[in-house]
Specification:
about 260 residues; alpha/beta; Rossmann fold; OB fold (Dihydrolipoamide Acetyltransferase, E2P); 2 domains; five-stranded antiparallel beta sheet; 7 helices; 15 strands; about 30% strand
């Protein structure tokens, strides 16, 4: 049996990556093998190419394999994730993030073949020729994130990839903005507020003040007291400027009407 699977192998250790790509090249199921030495490079490859499966190590510098798997799970049609690692103690977490397989190094060629047949081929067959149509790919760190579904933020020595859907409101902070997530955490992002307003307007965000951009689905209350108007967003009270009030009310009405249909 032959197939035409496209596989991306990700590992920061050159010998392991070479061995894995060699085994994949030998497989009659695989037509194309690409490699990446980091999660950042993997995201770049995923931006440029379509893959049926990503085989990745767990312990890598920067963004590790588990974090990358969580990002892949947010794709409209995520590739099948298979972990290839020297460590046994991450198996439970691997399946919690949606991995289809967990291979221990050194990789056994027979087990690899069985996993490709069991996990990757059925997924490709179920999706059909449009398997990757409309895939929503997060940007690599350093790329322009304004129109993407995921933004990259620096967190010390790590780069976090944050889904726009997890952001409740954005606050201006000079040359930066602070994005506030629905889980209560926040991160700084070097991006003009006006750029986010322009690119996120069609995705449920509205400017309510020169310093604030909010997600309509997270607005729980709009209230006016005299000449002052405020909104409640995840327990926070944010001011609404007079010039933005009309658009906010209009967008809220349309948002509620759309959700009731």
């Amino acid at each position: 049996m032959t197939a035409d699977l496209a596989i991306l192998a990700v590992d920061d250790e050159a010998p392991s990556l070479d061995e894995l790509s060699f085994l994949l090249d030998r497989s009659p199921l695989v037509a194309h093998v690409a490699v990446a030495r980091s999660a950042t490079e993997a995201l770049r490859r995923l931006h440029d190419e379509e893959f049926d499966s990503v085989l990745l190590d767990i312990r890598m510098p920067g963004l590790d394999g588990m974090e990358l798997a969580r990002v892949l799970g947010r794709f409209a049609r995520p590739p099948v994730v298979i972990f290839v690692t020297a460590h046994e103690d991450h198996a439970l977490e691997a399946f919690e993030v949606g991995a289809a397989g967990y291979l221990l190094k050194p990789v056994d060629e027979g087990r690899l073949d069985r996993l490709l047949r069991r996990a990757v081929l059925p997924s490709r067959a179920a999706l059909g020729p449009a398997a990757h149509a409309g895939v929503q790919v997060p940007p690599e760190p350093g790329a322009d994130p304004r129109a993407a579904d995921v933004v990259a933020v620096d967190a010390g020595s790590r780069t976090l990839l944050v889904a726009r859907a997890d952001i409740a409101w954005v606050e201006s902070a000079g040359d930066y903005v602070r994005i506030h997530l629905r889980d209560g955490t926040s991160h700084l992002l070097r991006m003009p507020m006006a750029a986010l307003e322009e690119h996120w307007s069609d995705h449920g965000f509205v400017r309510i003040h020169r310093s604030y951009l909010v997600s309509l689905r997270d607005v729980s209350e709009l209230r006016s007291d005299g000449g002052r108007t405020e909104v409640r967003v995840l327990g926070e009270t944010l001011p609404v400027s007079r010039r933005q009030l009309h658009e906010l009310r209009d967008r809220l009405v349309r948002h509620v009407g759309h959700n009731e249909r």
